[in-house]
């Protein structure tokens, strides 16, 4: 793979055109996923409920207590065992920008069957906002279209052990 910027190929003239034809070479990238053989599949936790998910999310969140919102996703296999955890967006004090393509692109690449969404509220109050509810419904609809179930959306209050499950609130 080349790190070279876009480069122009030599001009090619056509007998029928008065303008020269120009082509561009665009560098391409390839992403490969490699399963770590040292991780035994049966040792991965199975997430059956919100408290089980929170036990994984809180340690992830404690390392990022920087006063801004972080939106992440837990990727799960068909038996709801964790495949991985990804940070999708880092936002501002009062929000983060999340688009379905950033959530479902990695989920598709990792062959996830289900997701648990999570984000923090820097204020420490995990009560979901109207934007949180709207985003959750939008992502659940996208997941339904793609065949990737959104199991829950957990909102964690920074600096506290408080959290809210949007599944438990019947949003999902």
Short descriptors:
172 residues; Cytidine Deaminase, domain 2; globular; 23% helix; two-stranded antiparallel ribbon; alpha+beta
Q: What is the H/E string? A: EEHEEHEHEE
Rg over alpha carbons: 21 Å
Beta fraction of the residues? Answer: 15-25%
Structural domain count: 1
Q: Roughly how many Å apart are the termini?
A: 43 Å
CATH class: Alpha Beta
Going by CATH, the homologous superfamily would be: Cytidine Deaminase, domain 2
Q: What spatial order of strands do you see in the largest sheet?
A: 4-3-5-6-7
Shape: globular
Number of helices: 3
CATH third-tier fold name: Cytidine Deaminase, domain 2
Mean pLDDT: 82
The tally of strands reads 7
Largest sheet report: 5 strands, mixed
CATH-defined architecture: 3-Layer(aba) Sandwich
The class by helix and strand makeup works out as alpha+beta
Helix percent reads 10-25%
The low-confidence parts are none
Structural topology:
Blueprint: E1 7-8, E2 24-25, H1 50-62, E3 70-76, E4 82-90, H2 100-109, E5 114-121, H3 130-146, E6 149-157, E7 163-165
Parallel strand pairs: 5-6
Antiparallel strand pairs: 1-2, 3-4, 3-5, 6-7
């Amino acid at each position: 793979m080349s790190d070279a910027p876009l480069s122009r190929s030599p001009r090619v003239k056509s007998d029928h055109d008065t303008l020269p034809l120009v082509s561009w070479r665009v560098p391409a990238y390839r992403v490969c996923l490699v399963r770590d053989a040292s991780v035994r599949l049966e040792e991965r936790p199975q997430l059956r409920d919100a408290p089980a998910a929170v036990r994984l999310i809180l340690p992830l969140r404690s390392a990022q207590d920087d006063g801004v919102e972080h939106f992440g996703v837990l990727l799960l296999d068909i038996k709801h065992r964790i495949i991985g955890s990804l940070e999708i967006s880092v936002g501002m004090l009062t929000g983060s920008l999340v688009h379905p393509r950033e959530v479902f692109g990695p989920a598709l690449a990792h062959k996830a069957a289900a997701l648990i969404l999570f984000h923090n509220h820097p204020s420490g109050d995990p009560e979901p906002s109207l934007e949180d509810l709207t985003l959750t419904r939008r992502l659940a609809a996208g997941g339904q279209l793609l065949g990737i179930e959104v199991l829950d959306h957990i909102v964690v209050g920074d600096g506290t052990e408080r959290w809210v499950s949007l599944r438990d609130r019947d949003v999902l």
